[in-house]
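Section 3.1: Structural characterization of target chains.
Under the original work plan, the team committed to producing a structural model for every single-chain target entering the pipeline before any wet-lab resources were allocated. The record below documents one such target. The sequence was received from the expression subgroup and is listed exactly as submitted; it comprises 70 residues.
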Amino acid sequence: MVVIKAAVGALWNTGGLNWAASFELQRQKAGELDLLDWLRAMFGFQDVFMQLQMLVKWRDAPDGTVQAKE
């Protein structure tokens, strides 16, 4: 349980990150944005979880390639 709490805390630790000026201003001011929101703002990821899954699959593939699902 401690590891899970630490991971969630890390996601919310966005202090010091530069945000795009126009990205969800109200949520920025309220402190409601997390690291996944920052990735979406900076790199345009629509589905950050899907991007993470692809990176993990690529890392774990024996030959370094990932085949797309058909």
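The two ends are 37 Å apart (CA to CA).
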